[in-house]
């Protein structure tokens, strides 16, 4: 917000549309951080009768709202202001204000972006940055990464537009820089919307996590094999696992119950976020009926 105030002051002194667009961009970014905090707080609520699986996916909803806010406020305003400046250009007054604020903001945003990179590296593992943004089940870090990247690039575009306007004396360059900011924000907003929509609709476990669950299930003595299995993220740190497992026909009900308990224990030990597990036992028809379909009932 401090950076936003500085940009608005610079915009007032210079009449630069790039500075005004960057000020709006900073306000939108600050509001987005508040939305992410609200989403995290609401997601922590205990489950209710109406929402028996809890509110974990509220984090996905608020991340989606962030994408909408970034597009409607940041991108739309920047595009409008940039096009208006191109149609009716005017020079940049007292450019020292713009240069001072932009250089300060670039340093501050670079530090913020570095912090986001360090935090992301702690959980990214060996994934590429594109894979991390696409596969992360926790929406906050990818959102902040893209926002910080957009903020840094937006400042560079603004600096380019103001510099060219000062050098050439043509305010059209200021408008071009503003349009570049708008296009950048629109692209980031679309990427965020697509990724968070996928999480909101419902994504399963990662291939590595699914492999760990299968190995844990198959290692249980009473489980002959897995007939089929489905997973679903109820939130970033809560996974639902549903599976139909084949058991020996000669096992008693008590043995099957104990086998299911042991299988659940092994799944939770291998994948701690697998908090909701439903296992349905079925006869191992591959053993009891040689001609039966290997997929079971």
CATH class bucket of the largest domain: Mainly Alpha
- Major beta sheet summary: 3 strands, mixed
Strand content: 5-15%
**Main sheet: strand order:** 1-2-3
- Extended strand count: 3
Shape: elongated
Decide which structural class fits the backbone: mainly alpha
Order of helices and strands: HHHHHHHHEEHEH
Number of domains: 2
What is the count of helical runs? 10
Instruction: Kindly report how far apart the N and C termini lie.
Output: 59 Å
Quaternary state reads: single chain
The proportion of residues forming helix, as a percent range, comes to 55-70%
| CATH topology grouping of the largest domain | Alpha-lytic protease prodomain-like
- The average pLDDT is 85
CATH superfamily name of the largest domain? Cation efflux protein transmembrane domain
The gyration radius over C-alpha positions equals: 26 Å
The CATH architecture of the largest domain comes to: Up-down Bundle
Low-confidence runs? 288-297
Subcellular location: Membrane
Signal peptide: 1-21
Main location: membrane
Membrane topology: Multi-pass membrane protein
Secondary-structure map with pairings?
Blueprint: H1 2-14, H2 17-43, H3 58-87, H4 95-124, H5 129-135, H6 140-168, H7 172-201, H8 207-219, E1 225-235, E2 238-247, H9 253-270, E3 274-283, H10 285-288
Parallel strand pairs: 2-3
Antiparallel strand pairs: 1-2
Helix pairs in contact: 1-2, 1-4, 2-3, 2-6, 2-7, 3-7, 4-6, 6-7, 8-9
């Amino acid at each position: 917000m401090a950076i936003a105030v500085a940009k608005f002051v610079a915009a007032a002194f210079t009449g630069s549309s790039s500075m005004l667009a960057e000020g709006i961009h900073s306000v939108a970014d600050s509001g987005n951080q508040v939305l992410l905090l609200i989403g995290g707080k609401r997601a922590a609520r205990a489950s209710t009768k109406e929402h028996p699986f809890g509110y974990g996916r509220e984090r996905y909803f608020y991340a989606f709202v962030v994408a909408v806010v970034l597009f409607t406020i940041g991108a739309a305003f920047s595009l409008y202001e940039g096009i208006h400046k191109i149609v009716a250009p005017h020079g940049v007054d007292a450019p020292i204000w713009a240069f001072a604020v932009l250089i300060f903001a670039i340093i501050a945003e670079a530090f913020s972006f570095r912090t986001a990179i360090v935090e992301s590296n702690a959980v990214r593992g060996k994934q590429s940055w594109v894979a991390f943004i696409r596969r992360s089940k926790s929406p906050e870090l990818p959102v902040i990464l893209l926002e910080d990247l957009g903020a840094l690039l937006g400042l560079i575009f603004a600096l380019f537009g103001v510099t060219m306007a000062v050098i050439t004396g043509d305010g059209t360059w200021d408008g071009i820089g503003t349009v570049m900011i708008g296009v950048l924000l629109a692209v980031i907003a679309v990427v965020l919307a697509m990724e968070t929509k996928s999480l909101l609709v419902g994504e399963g476990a990662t291939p590595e996590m699914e492999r760990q669950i299968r190995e844990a299930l198959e290692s249980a003595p009473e489980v002959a094999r897995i007939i089929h299995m489905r997973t679903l993220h109820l939130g970033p740190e809560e996974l639902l696992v549903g599976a139909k497992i084949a058991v020996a026909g000669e096992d008693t009900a008590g043995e099957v119950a104990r086998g299911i308990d042991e299988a659940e224990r092994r799944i939770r030990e291998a994948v701690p976020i697998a908090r909701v597990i439903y296992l349905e036992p079925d006869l191992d028809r591959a053993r009891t009926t040689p001609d039966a379909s290997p997929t079971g009932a």
